[in-house]
Amino acid sequence: MTGGPCVLVLAVSACGSSSTGAAANQPKPSKAADLALAKKSLVVLSDLPSGWTASGKVTSGSGSTGGEPLAKIAACLGVTTAQLNINFPTENSPTFNNPGGSSTVSDQVETFPSPARAGTDFSNFSNPKTPGCITTVFGPLLRQEVQKGGGAGTTIGAVTTTRQTFPAFGDQSGEMQIQAPFSTAGVSTSLYVDLVDIIKGRLETTLSFTTAGSAFDQTEAQKLAAAAFRHMS
């Protein structure tokens, strides 16, 4: 996955440290079993309100990969690039679209060798530096995406990233919101990307809500988070 919200998901939820995996006296789960577990834990179309549609299909991955954006965010967070490069089985949902086409939702679930390792990964999401680093490193990428979508004559304001209050789910959870104000054809509005991260055992799910005009409805976001948590259980 590359570009805009997809890169943001990789940055804040698929970044880990180089700590050890499962304990030596525990059998190592197979990649196939972990992918099956991750796929089972994804939100599905029936979790969305009536009228929503799905585009694309479930795709498999292996967490984050290297590259310039992750190198920059590693430097911003004060960690090594190696600490952000992980390779654990990951499944990505289709993109879900609301009837008016103004909102999309996607889900990414990653399986870690142990609950402790998953908790270590969440520390990147909860790092006090993370909102500022997202704004600094990924703000320009998001601006490029908005510019491309808006076409000629579109102007983009300053991108901001803030933490949001969100109900507790699972072992650890949280939400961040990225906002990019823009103007096109004389109309000013904003693009919002809300990222909700949930840890349950050795699973991590990251819900991405992208909306134009206003932030995604928090009641619906919480319902989807509850659905995601049910699938993880």
Provide a brief overview of the structure.
This protein has 233 residues and is an alpha+beta fold.
Bin the helical content. 25-40%
Q: Report the principal-axis shape.
A: globular
Structural class: alpha+beta
Please tally the helical runs, counting DSSP H or I stretches of 4 or more residues: 7
Write down the Rg.
17 Å
Oligomer: single chain
Beta-strand residue fraction: 25-35%
Q: How far apart lie the N and C ends?
A: 27 Å
Q: Which whole number gives the mean pLDDT?
A: 84
The string of secondary-structure elements, in order, is HHEEHHEEEHHEEEEEH
Outline the biggest β-sheet. Answer: 10 strands, antiparallel
Uncertain spans: 1-11, 13-24
Strand count: 10
Task: Summarize this structure as a short list of keywords or feature phrases.
233 residues; alpha+beta; ten-stranded antiparallel β-sheet; 7 helices; 10 strands; globular; disordered N terminus
Provide a descriptive summary of the structure in words:
This protein is of the alpha+beta class and 233 residues long. 35% of the residues lie in helices and 28% in strands. Strands 1, 2, 3, 4, 5, 6, 7, 8, 9 and 10 form a ten-stranded antiparallel β-sheet that branches. The protein is globular. The relative contact order is 0.19.
List the helices and strands and how they pair.
Elements: H1 4-13, H2 31-40, E1 53-55, E2 59-61, H3 68-77, H4 81-84, E3 90-92, E4 95-97, E5 103-111, H5 115-126, H6 130-150, E6 155-156, E7 160-164, E8 172-184, E9 187-200, E10 203-212, H7 218-232
Antiparallel strand pairs: 1-4, 2-3, 3-5, 4-5, 5-10, 6-8, 7-8, 8-9, 9-10
Helix pairs in contact: 1-6, 3-6
